[in-house]
Amino acid sequence: MVDEELKHIIHRAKRGDREAFADLVQRFKGHVYRYAVGMLGDRMDAEDVSQETFIKAYYSLSSLDSEYAFSSWIIRVAANLCKDRLKKRAKAPEHDITEEQNEWIADQRAANPLEKLSIEEGLSRLSVGHREVLLLHEIQGYNYEEIAEMIDVPLGTVKSRLFAARINLRKELRRED
Q: CA 135, CA 165: separation in Å to the nearest integer?
């Protein structure tokens, strides 16, 4: 839930207050960056997408309907930019998408280096849709309804993608053993 202070900051930013927007960047840059790293698997690309996200957000903040929706809205902006970046990569196969893959997940989930490698490799082999819902739910901590709003799909689709993502990740991790 959005606290009153954050709601006030978002309201000021929507009216063009640059300091308020800078405060929003400070508060949400970690969430956006972690999401982008998880989706893209590359820190440099994640930094680029994070910057693009806040630039795009700055120019389209007036389209935000409710201050309560800022968190999901900013992740949706990042998600769209990540998907665009992944499409560009698919057209340029020389790019190594597993480079520095999901380092932050290992910090939160893996105790040893071999386990870290398995999680990174397994995530890199998931489809974009499965990786997206898995990262948003398991790592970022969003609930099903928030994810459905962020990626603009029905609630049932989120649940089925998350279920399939867990199964596929489990298969990938077993395959690596």
A: 10
Q: In the chain, which residue ranges form alpha helices assigned H by DSSP?
A: 4-14, 18-40, 43-60, 70-91, 103-109, 113-124, 128-134, 144-151, 155-176
The answer to whether the CB of 26 falls within 8 A of the CB of 74 is no
**What's the start-to-end Cα distance of the chain, in Å?**
41
Instruction: With beta carbons less than 8 A apart as the criterion, state whether 5 and 27 touch.
Output: no
**Number of neighbouring beta carbons within 10 Å of residue 111:** 8
Tens of pLDDT along 65-106? 877 788 889 999 999 999 999 888 877 654 443 444 445 444
> What pLDDT, in 10s, does the model give residues 26-71?
999 999 999 999 899 888 999 999 999 999 999 999 888 877 788 8
Per residue, what are the HEC states of 52-89? Answer: HHHHHHHHHHHHCCCHHHHHHHHHHHHHHHHHHHHHHH
